[in-house]
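Q: Start with the shorter request: fold the first protein.
A: Done. Sequence, then structure:
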Amino acid sequence: WLSRSFSLGLGRWKAIVIATALTSGLGGMLAIAGLAYLFDDVVIFDDEVVGWSSDRLPLAGVLVTVGVVLTVVGTLASVALMLRTVDGDERGGALGAEATAAWWAIRRGLAVMPRAIGWGLVLTLGFAAAVLVLVLVTVVVLPLGILLIVAAVPAFVFVAVRLAFTVQAIVDRPGNPFRRSFEVSRGRFWATFGRMLLLGLIVWLVSLVVQTVSGLLSGSGFQGFGQDGLVTEDDGTFVSMEMGETFATSPWALVVTVVSTVVVALFTGGVVGAGSAMLYRSRNAAEEPFA
């Protein structure tokens, strides 16, 4: 299973690179540009903020929103591409064929995005309701609340594994994605948990290496994100924060950001996506070929 995950995922590297560059990579650049524009010349002091202009909010908001949307579309597109690959679509073909597959995946991501937003809201509201109940019980009856919080930890892990394939289910077809995600780990919870943990460790290691290398290449990220622009006294007392310097970046840093995003996507969207797609398809056969 793991060997095939690498084979299927990295075998579509051309399509993944194209799809990621046009979605998540571009989206990240737009979001950074929006924040840099919004906070340009803004300086935060202890008792006031200088240089803030609400006139920048509309354009900055549009840039950040479009960036977030493109990132979400990129995630959905990579899932669609891996499902299609597991279903038997030829991989590792000519550049033109892989570009066509990438464009199909992006269109698929756009098509299912409303459905993803809807089910995402359902999941968010359910999680928020559970947290609210825990908080209320803890406030009213502290010992019982603490007991529930302790019990909630393994319960959260259990639910997370059962819901781990929700995105695949949403992209696959309409209907209740939670039920189809639950089906994947039914009767084999620990096997599924172990495989998802292994994939998670792979992503963590790859992300750690890529972030370290990209930080060195771009000068510690975005000018040492969160550090440049910070002015303190010798004893560490806060004086001011120049937000424009905090979000400042160079064209080279933006290029490094896009490249690092694509490299991480090869493993998250490719290897992890292929492994997850195989597990999902083992209990949820394709009803019909992707169009």
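Q: Next, the second protein, separately.
A: Sequence, then structure:
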Amino acid sequence: MDIRGRVGFNVQRLRREREISQEELSFLSGCTRAYLSGMEAGRRNATLITLAKIAKALDVDVTEFFVKPPKRGSAVKRRTAGAVPSGRARKVTRPRK
């Protein structure tokens, strides 16, 4: 994965974690939705100014865009998938008929 792909992947990951659409991030950052889409796909080169605007909109440090993404299906992901923090029970409800 090249640097554009890494930055794009992380922008998309952080945006989705915050449940923000590209349209919302576009409004918050001042970038067009098409530009964000291209950047997330690794087709656009973002300037530092643009990355700073996006970082501010996502409330993260700009360095978060450069971290190496975890490998798909990593042991940590598999082991913690669906885990409940210790001391807490998961409430299961059934739909009413």
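Q: Describe the second briefly.
A: The helical segments are 3-17, 22-29, 33-40, 48-58, 75-80. Residues 76-81 have pLDDT under 50 and may be disordered.
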